[in-house]
Amino acid sequence: MTVQHVPMNRRTVLRGAFAAAIGIPTAGALASCATGGAGDDDPTDGGNTGEASDTNPFGMAENTVVDAVIFDGGYGIDYVEFAAAILAETHSGSSVEVQSSTQIATELQPRFVGGNPPDLIDNSGAQSMGFNTILDQLEDLTDVIDAPNLEGTTIRDTLYGGVLAPGTFDGKLAAINYVLTVYALWYSASLFEENSWTPPTTWAEAKELGAAAAEQGKYLFLFGTEAATYYQTLCIDSAIIEGGDEVRLALENLEEGCWSHPAIQSVFTAFKEIIDLGYMKPGGSGTQFTAAQAQWSNGQEALLYPSGSWIENEMKDQTAEGFEMTGTNTFPVTADSTFPATALHSTAGEPFIVPSDAASVEGGKELLRTMLSKESAENFSKTKLAPTVIKDLVPEDGFGSTALVSQTDMLSAAGDDIFTYNFVATYGMNQEQLVFWNSFLDGQSTVEKLTADLQGLTDRIREDDSITKIEVQ
């Protein structure tokens, strides 16, 4: 996800006030969060450890102040505050300071260099830290998933299959991704029904829908400057469905000529035709991304928008009444694609990491354990209308969300045909790619130029021996 930059906001979770706001009974006021000595009456920054037990499996010290920095994107940070309040209740005298950030790398890399990183980080957003640059500075989190949750069940046994893969690098579980993200094309089911439109299943059908939209003064697509690479995700997903795993692996492993793969080129060419026909709303490179998204979700100026499943929560205050936000699968180029049309890009997102040099590694892991327990995970799905990596917590009615129901339908239809890829995040490529895609979407670039720009960046990273490479098989 990409978001507008706002200053880091330090929030101290006070058990009484926050619990009252979310309806959790309080057992007493939380101890002061001011940093003090390691005595019995004052919280500590966690420089020492406590005794490990079934209810404290990592040995978090008493009176610990856990320092958490959370990416403030489509899901906000209140879901971590919710878990923080539970931790304060289960560990009397301890507390959590939750800080929000939209510039994770900029604000936290100096802390890594200085040896004082936070205890828990949500390493997400356009400004996330590349895992290849920090892998050796992170804890292996296998002990977290092998620990019991607050209900006493081993966390590993509560997870959806495959959700640990995106956070595993060279055999090390360096991140636990919290949200099960579905990447799809989103639309208003009510608008489509009103106009007897159906979601496209190929790029040719998308072009036809674009023509129908134009007849009503609408566009097929629109975009905002910080989210231009959402369309890169759309194109890669389409190319993988069209051409199969060889497309995905070539990109993941930074292969020479990977962006020239026939499947990718066929997608780029089909998309360029749609742009040239005027079915992409112009001016997106000068429009802030949530403002652009509101033009879709509130103004209904465009029919389709590619995004991860955070989109409903991100735009909940800027969505037209009766919109009925619904997801549909990314479409391939042809009807005889390598993967079936039901294939789906879905992955565990929002990667949470615990730095090895954190003041309280134990506290970071304990907060993460709390987040992975039923109460916290269920609260997330209910308030954010998105599934977590904890299975069997979303009811059939999706808590009243058409978007959440469509996600579960797509996941069910996909079966084993679910794929993901990490190379953009692994090598921190998004910022440079945004420049290429803003130009392409605004009609100022060609397929050849886009391909050359993307390949040039890929080649530069591959040939740079100072950059650690992670092979994907």
TrEMBL record:
InterPro entries: Bact_solute-bd_prot1, Chitin_NgcE, SBP, TAT_signal. It is found in: Cell envelope. Residues 1-31 form the signal peptide. It comes from the Bacteria. GO terms for cellular component: cell envelope. Pfam families: SBP_bac_1. Belongs to the bacterial solute-binding protein 1 family. This is Bacterial extracellular solute-binding protein. It comes from Occultella aeris.
